[in-house]
Amino acid sequence: MSIEIPKTQKGCIFYENHGEIFYKDIPVPKPKANEILINVKYSGVCHTDLHAWHGDWPLDVKLPLVGGHEGAGVVVAKGENVTNFEIGDYAGIKWLNGSCMGCEYCQQGAEPNCPDADLSGC
Fold it and tell me: Origin, by domain of life (predicted)?
């Protein structure tokens, strides 16, 4: 199955904490070797997004940032090392992809606060 992937997508993006939120075209990323690219059909914007926008999250927020980090859709591309997904599969996007499991936060069960956490959308 061949899917044509556009070069840009629409997103709500902010460039500074408490700054204006812009609805604009942004580039569609290419998946890294261990990533999949999902055509998102549904996404939530939750309180974590509000914390990121306000800048009151315990982790540094990498700006600019597009809100909505939990979603579901269809796999349209995958990196060369991905073996557990195929193009056309349904996939969900969870907020926390991984953490170091060795730092103080991880040892206390607070993996989202890990300084090395791999967070979707953040």
Answer: Eukaryota
pLDDT, one tens digit per residue, over 13-35 is 999 999 999 999 999 999 999 89
Question: Cβ-count burial of 114 within 10 angstroms (0-12 exposed, 13-18 middle, 19+ buried)?
Answer: buried
Fold observed for domain 8-119: Quinone Oxidoreductase; Chain A, domain 1 (3.90.180)
Give the number of other Cβ atoms within 10 Å of residue 111's Cβ.
Answer: 17
Secondary structure (3-state) at 113: helix
122: pLDDT confidence band, cut at 50, 70 and 90?
low
Q: For residue 102, which of 120, 116, 88, 87 has the smallest C-alpha distance?
A: 116
pTM, two decimals, is 0.80
Structure tokens at 44: 């939530």
